[in-house]
Amino acid sequence: MKRIIALAAATLLLAGCKTSDAEEKETLRISAAASLMDVVAALEPVFTELHPDTELVINYGSSTKLRAQIEQGAPFDLFLSASSADMDKVADAGLIDADTVIPFAENGLVLVSADTVDGDVTDLLRNPEGNIAVGQPDSVPLGIYTKESLAAAGLWDGLDGHLVYGKDARQVLTYAESGNADLGIVYQSDAAISEKVEVVGKLPSGDTPIVYPAGVAEQAENQAAAEAFIEVLTGDEGRKVIENHGFALPEGGK
């Protein structure tokens, strides 16, 4: 009987230890642009190995949508944006510690298709024969960059009636991969990781560079972990992952 009681007590003690360990685990809440999904996934085990007591909770979406969530009070510790404009807005509103903002990647735009397509990008867009998937031009950074690029080249207005809009960069890629759109305009990083589309050609650069900044919340509950993730992101391992996923390093980043 005494042995049974001792075993029960030991079991309760172990259970209490496990509960205590779980309670001690911290959370790092990251709001990240959808186009960074694979980069963050690749860096998650690197970060976890260095910080095993911190659990990552990641919210993906278009940077403009994430910015709106932040402005409406959504909890977060770290914002990884595909748009300097969206980062600037939350920093100007006092929601991001401006001293922590740092660019960590750059990107470009390409025209892709699930089928083999011959022809010059300009000619294909000037005389479209099917649907073209693009990001929402008023609310998604990919769409904003796309409209700016094509408008500067005199190609945007001619696409009326041929456009299929995606809510974020990954949805645009999915439309092109599935053939729901004949062509798609996506980030070069998304094209690099896709095995279902071929790059037809590059789009001309717009006036706004496609720069990805990171920034820590002004009222971060886990500021130390947020800063530690930025260190991983901008360190040797992070730069390697960024380049391996089709991004470019920001000027002076090598």
UniProtKB/TrEMBL annotation:
Entry GO MF terms: metal ion binding; molybdate ion binding; tungstate binding
Alphabetical list of InterPro entries matching this protein: ModA, ModA/WtpA
Instruction: Output one GO BP term.
Output: molybdate ion transport
PROSITE patterns, per the entry: PROKAR_LIPOPROTEIN
| UniProt keyword Membrane, yes or no | no
In which domain of life is the source organism classified? Bacteria
Q: Which Pfam families match?
A: SBP_bac_11
What are the boundaries of the signal sequence? 1-22
Q: Which residues bind molybdate?
A: S35, S63, Y187
Q: Which UniProt keywords apply?
A: Metal-binding, Molybdenum, Signal
Q: Which PANTHER family match?
A: MOLYBDATE-BINDING PERIPLASMIC PROTEIN, SULFATE-BINDING PROTEIN
Extract the NCBIfam families matched here: modA
What's the family?
Answer: Belongs to the bacterial solute-binding protein ModA family.
Spell out the protein name for this chain.
Answer: Molybdate transport system substrate-binding protein
Species name for this entry?
Bhargavaea ginsengi
